[in-house]
Amino acid sequence: MPNSKQAAKRLVQDERRRLANKATRTNMKSALKKALKATTPESKAETQAAAASRIDKAAKQRVIHPNAAARLKSRLAKRLAKTSA
């Protein structure tokens, strides 16, 4: 329980931010999974671009670290290249 009015407000703000971050992270993970399940080369390129965009957005909002975003995009590109070869 918060002891002050300020602490109560921070509790509400933290919860709002937590839910927003969770939504961003969920969207990012869904885009990654969709890209990995793509079958045709056209859909692979399209879904890879969408996933990279979601990863960049999460990094820009600091939901994930920018280096983690770069690592995720690199691994995604490697896996899609491996499956298309």
Characterise this structure.
The chain has 85 residues and is an all-alpha fold. The protein has one domain: Up-down Bundle (Methane Monooxygenase Hydroxylase, Chain G, domain 1). The protein has 3 helices and no strands. The chain has helices spanning 5-37, 41-60, 66-84. Helix 1 (5-37) runs antiparallel to helix 2 (41-60) and helix 2 runs antiparallel to helix 3. The radius of gyration is 17 Å and the shape is elongated. The mean pLDDT is 95.
User: DSSP helix count?
Assistant: 3
Shape: elongated
CATH architectural arrangement: Up-down Bundle
Number of strands: 0
Count of individual domains:
1
Topology:
Layout lengths: L4 H33 L3 H20 L5 H19 L1
Helix pairs in contact: 1-2, 2-3
Task: Offer a quick outline of the entry.
The chain has 85 residues and is mainly alpha-helical. 85% of the residues lie in helices and 0% in strands. The model has no long low-confidence stretch (mean pLDDT 95).
Main attributes of the structure:
85 residues, mainly alpha, Methane Monooxygenase Hydroxylase, Chain G, domain 1, elongated
